[in-house]
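Protein modeling request. Please complete all fields; requests missing the sequence field cannot be processed.
Requester role: graduate student
Desired output: 3D structure, token encoding
Chains: 1
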Amino acid sequence: MNVTCHNCKTKLNIPDHKIPKDKEASFKCPKCKETVLVPALAQQKPAGEIKRQPNPISFEERQNALVCIEDSELKKKVYAIIQQMGFNAEAVTDTKAALNKMEYHIYHLVIIDEAFEPTMGISGIIDRMNTIDMSLRRRICLVLVSSKYNSNDNMVALHSSVNAIIHRDDIPHLEPFLSKVLIEHKNFYTVYSESLRLAGKA
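Delivered output (202 residues):
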């Protein structure tokens, strides 16, 4: 059994037959003479049986997401999925509230339904996106929920000034869709930023 002295950090190898199976043992470290405690073998689990708990993401480490959807059922589904993915999710009821939040917070993901406040919803959000500094805009993945356009229609996404489109019928598959879109978004701008840096423009 491998044991490390808590005092001098010397690593020692003690034969298992010298360690009691049913009680804690102790011995003097040969280097610093401190007492080293060794738990009973019966209390220790083989390496294969150790269950490692995943490190939870702290609230501060999570990325922010903004949900701009009026339909309550759709909003609830999207909000739940985004939270499950580990985002700090916030939902708004109108464009004014969305723009106010975007003024003071950085959102790495913004999901907006094309039916969100028809008078100025999607156009108001996109106008805001087009006025912010490009270094900040590149950090935001804007996803449009549509009942007219197919998911992953890149040409429509480009013309709509969004990063990706998902059809409403595909919302049950939102998590794998977003995982793919967010990775592609990150990879694209990583390469883009590196190209700018090499060209001396960043």
